Amino acid sequence: MKTFKIGGAAFIIASALFLAGGNTYAEELSPVKEKIISEFQEETIDQEQEKLAKGEENLIYVQFKAGISATEKLAFERTFELKNKIDIGSAEIYQYRLPDQVVSEEVLVALNQSDIINFAEPEYKVTPSQEAIDLSGIWGFQNIEFPGIDANVSPAWNYTKGSPEVVVAVIDSGIDLNHPALKDRIWVNKDEIPGDGIDNDKNGYIDDENGWNFNQNNNDLMDTMGHGTHVSGIIAAGQQAINSSKINVSGLAPNVKIMPIRIFTTGESAGTTAAIRYAINNGALVTNMSFSSTGNSATREALMKEATNTIFASAAGNNGMNIDITPIYPAALRLSNNISVANMTNKGTLSSRSNYGIKNVDIAAPGSGIYNTFLNGGYMTYSGTSMAAPYVAGTAALIRSISPTLTPAEIKQIIESTVTPSLIFPNIIKSGGFLNTGKAVELAASNTIQGVFPEPALATEIARQVGKQVTDVFTPTDAEKITTITLKRATGEASKPASAEGIQRLKNLRTLDIRQFNLGTIDVSNNKLLETLTLEYDGLNNIDVSNNPDLKYFDVTGNNITAVNLRNQPNLLHCDIQNNKISSIDIHKNLDLVQFHATNNDLASVDVTANTALVNLAVGGNKLSTLNLSKLVNLKRLTISANKFSFIDVRNNPLLDYFSAGANQLTALDISRNPKLVYLDVNNNQIKELDISRNPVLTQLYTSYNPGIVIR
C-alpha cells in the first residue's frame, strides 16, 4: 500500500504547475519526472504531524506510464472525468475527478498497482490540528528539538509585531481572502472605490482594492493553488490557537499588511515585472518573491535596482545546485536591496534541494516542514526556499516597523550582520549563517535615535538636526551630520538622572554643550574632533579628555570632579573647572590658555608661569597661599579671593583692570604698576595702608573689614 505524506499531491501539483513558462515556484520539487515523488517525500513533511482530511475528496492526480495508448487512456476517462493537464518537462500529470464518490484508499491502491500508471495521488486539505502546539512548536520560531536552530523570533516581539503602516507585497498565486488568519491582514487601497468600475486612484488598474491579478488582468486575487496563501501566512498570519488555548500558527509580523499580487493561476506565470512595478508604485516597503527562472530580465533587474525604498526577499530555488555557477533569478541579482534566501532544515543543515552560492545566496532561513495557512481557511505544511524567503521578508517588515527610515541596503546589512553563525554555511552562503530575527530587530531598534540616545532631550535634538522622528533609525550618515549639541535643562529638573549614551557615535562632533543634566558619567573618547566641551552641573565624578587634542574650550563647572588631565590639549584657550573638588592640576603645556577659572576647588598650588597668554585668571575659594604671576604680562582679570594669601605680587601685570582679593590674609598690596585698574576688592584682609594714587581709572574700590586701613 502506498504511503502518502501531508499535502503530497497538492504540493506536487501546485509546484508542478509553476514549471510552465520558464518560471518555477521555489518548492522542493524537481522537474524530472522520476524524482517527483521521491524528492517530495524526502523533503516535505514529518509523517507524525497533523492528520489530514480530504478537501476535494473526489479529485486525483495521475501520471501515466510512458507508451500508454490512446485507447487505454480513453478507457480510464470513462470512469474519471478529466479536469486539467499539467506539463512537467517531457512528462504530464493529469487532474481527474471521480464523479459522485470520494477517492478511497482502495481506489488509490488499485490505481497505483495499475500497469499503465506511474502514480496516483489524492488532493488534500489540512484541517485544524488536534495536537496542542504552543509557539515553541513552530520550529522556525523556537526549535525545541534542536535548540538555537531557528530564527529566534520571540525576542523581536519585545520590540514590535509589525506596524499596519508597513505593507508587504507577496507576488505569488494570490491569497485566501477569507482565511481567518489573513483576512484582517490584507492591504486595502484606500484611494480606490470598490466595484465602481473606475480607476479612482489613476494607477492604471480598475477596482484594485486589495491588489491585482496580472495573469488574468483583473482584480481576482483568490488563491486556487495555496502557495501564495502559505507564503503570506509565514509573513503575517494572525496568531491562531487551533483546537487549543495555545498559539500554533503565526506570521513573523502579524500586524503588517499583505498586498497580494497574483501572477500564477493555473500554472502559467505572467507579468513579474509589472507586478514588481505595481508593488513599488503602491507603497510596498517589502516584497516577497518565492519564484524563480533561469533567464534574467534586464527590465526587472533595472526596476528592482531603482526601487530605493523597497527591499526584496528572493527564494534561492530548489535545484540543489550552486547558483554562482548556474544563476537562478531574481535570487542571483546582486543588488543592495535584494536578499537571496536558502532553505535550512530544523537540524541546521542546508536542505538537499536548496540552491546555494557563496556569492549569490545571502542567507539561510527555516524552510523545511513549515506549517501555516492554506486554502479554504485551512493549514498546510510545505517545504522549500519558497518558505524560507518569507521568513526574511517578515523580518524585514519587523525592522521596517521599528525603524521606518532605514534604507533597504541598511536592512539587508542588519539582517546579514546578525545571522547565527554556522559551521555548515560559511563556504556556501554569503553571510555564513542563518536568520536571527530577534537579533536583527534588536539591532534595528537600538539603531533608532531613541535607542542610540536614550536621554529624551538628546534624542529629540538629534532627531531635529537630522530631520527625523526619534523612532527612526540613526544611520552613520546621520552621525556624520551632527557637529553641535547644545542642551540646557531647567534648574528644577537638574537632579533628574540623565544619560549621555550615544554621544560617542558622533565622531564629527565639534561642540558639545550639556548643562544641568545629571549625567553621572560621559564618554567623549571617540569625539576626537571636539573643540568645545561644556558640561556644567551634570553630576560628573570624572572626565577624560585625553583623546580630544583639538579641545579649545573646556568647561566642567559645578560637578564633583577630583582630577583633570589637560596635558594633551596644546590648543586649549579657555578652561573652566569651577565648583569641583580638584586638588591639583597641571596646565603648563597649555601655552595658548587665555582664560583659567578654577574657583571653589581644593587647590593648594597652581603653576601658571608657562601660561603667558593668560588674560583671565580666577582661583578664588581654594587653599592657595602663593601664586607666581610674574610672567603674565597680558593678565587683565584676576580673582584670588577666599584663599590664604598674605602676599601677592601684581607689579608685572600692567594690563590688570579687575582684581578681586577679598577674604585673604593680606597685610599690604602694591598696585602702583596697575594703571588700568578699574575694580579692586580687598575686603576682609589686614591691609593697613593702600596707595591708589597711580590708579587714575579705579572707580570701584572695596576695602571693608580691614581694621584701620588708610587710603592714599
TrEMBL record:
Organism: Listeria booriae
Catalytic site: 172 (charge relay system), 227 (charge relay system), 386 (charge relay system)
One GO molecular-function entry: serine-type endopeptidase activity
CDD domains: Peptidases_S8_Subtilisin_like
Any Gene Ontology biological process: proteolysis
PROSITE patterns registered for this protein in UniProt: SUBTILASE, SUBTILASE_ASP, SUBTILASE_HIS, SUBTILASE_SER
SUPFAM superfamilies from the UniProt entry: L domain-like, Subtilisin-like
Domain Peptidase S8/S53: 165-420
Ribosomal protein listed as a keyword: no
Family: Belongs to the peptidase S8 family.
Keyword Signal: yes
Record key words, sorted: Hydrolase, Protease, Serine protease, Signal
Name under which the protein is recorded: Peptidase S8/S53 domain-containing protein
The organism's place on the tree of life at top rank: Bacteria
Database matches in InterPro entries: LRR_dom_sf, Peptidase_S8/S53_dom, Peptidase_S8/S53_dom_sf, Peptidase_S8_Asp-AS, Peptidase_S8_His-AS, Peptidase_S8_Ser-AS, Peptidase_S8_subtilisin-like, Peptidase_S8_subtilisin-rel
Lineage: Bacteria, Bacillati, Bacillota, Bacilli, Bacillales
Span of the signal peptide: 1-26
